[in-house]
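Hello K.,

You asked for the raw outputs rather than the summary table, so here they are, unedited. I folded two proteins back to back in the same session to keep the settings identical. This is the first:
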Amino acid sequence: MLIRQERPSDVPSIRAVTAAAFSGVAHAAPSVEADGAPGEATLVGWLRADPGWVPSLSLVAESGPADPEVVGHVVATRGQLAGRSALGLGPLSVHPAHQGRGVGAALMHAVLGAADALGEPVVVLLGEPALYSRFGFVAAGETGIESPDPAWGDYFQARTLSAWRPEYAGRFRYAAPFDRL
């Protein structure tokens, strides 16, 4: 498996992987397109057109070298944290046929390392605490970061990076396309 930055030719594969990963998932965003794909599949396209898009933080997992195909994708985009730039992660997608093989973990480690190398202070996400705690995520409130929706509780999580300073704490706002779901 190879983790690399997405290429323009990957866009259809990323949409297909994201749609497959979120199809039938109880917490998936409702479809906003005629094809019935989960909202997360459309969201990635909207994020590409947003000023918060960070090309170097849109990563794909590509299967073996013999017949490479995109089997996973993760993206982190710029949001706002108390007037500063901060990263919101998601969606993270792994094709169901490749889940449970470490693809998602490899994507998470790669995107967190890339974000840290770029000097970003923090990455936030909305997800299952038991899953993301193994990557160093904690309930965002523990870092002083307020969720866009208080009802999210401990599912809104943060992973501070090397550039983090406690004075960066405050209310987080995702890139605008998230508000369209």
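The second followed immediately with the same parameters:
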Amino acid sequence: MAEIFQHRARKRFGQNFLHDAGVIDRILRAISPKSGQRLLEIGPGQGALTEGLVNSDAQLDVIELDNDLIPLLKLRFGLKTNFNLHHGDAMKFDFTELNAQSHELRVVGNLPYNISTPLIFHLLSNAHLIKDMHFMLQKEVVERLAAQPGTNDWGRLSIMVQYHCRVEHLFNVGPGAFNPPPKVDSAIVRLIPHEHLPHPAKDHKLLEVVVREAFNQRRKTLRNTLKKLLPVEAIIAADVDPSLRPEQLDLAAFVRLADQLAMRPSVTAE
């Protein structure tokens, strides 16, 4: 029966289907789904991870955009009482529809590389519902997510994700684990939203503004790159050296700069 639903990966959806049984098992062990948990899988594809997730007896919701994969997923899992399929775009999905309790959802996905960053930010806007997230991403994106201050990978993505989450780079996955094989290495990352932010900003939208402006010209000093937002005396008032470059600052320092911006008159996050 499955032969009726042979499906070729579509470039426009950024599809690379995971098929390596050893990698699939390692990912499932990292997630460690349990009966009674609420799982959400984004982009189940042909169901490589879905099978292990649904067999854990956790309550599993999946979101799939590709029309041609819906019959395959219904055929394989449609009779499972703990399986619920949502046909749609995860970027536009209203996660409150799942009626999840605070910090209850466990999100899983082999994310298309072309939408991985905006999708993560879309999920972070619902961080209060999420217990943890396990994603397959391009390896260089995971390295940026997990980066530390003072490194070349430290930047806007690192700071804004680490503001909301603890980041763990779990392990790497080679191209051969996929069909078709991508031209880049991949990696598994675990994101755990903070129940209490370690460095809460007065306005996290202004934090985004400061970080974006700082890294627009990352080789320049803060004195120059932030001059449209903050005078030198405001940077110093945030206990930050204006002669530093942005990659030399940690998250806490960026929050202090954003808080200085928040205290200035007529400032809005645009």
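Confidence is low (pLDDT under 50) at residues 1-7, 9-14.

Happy to rerun anything if the numbers look odd on your end.

Regards,
P.
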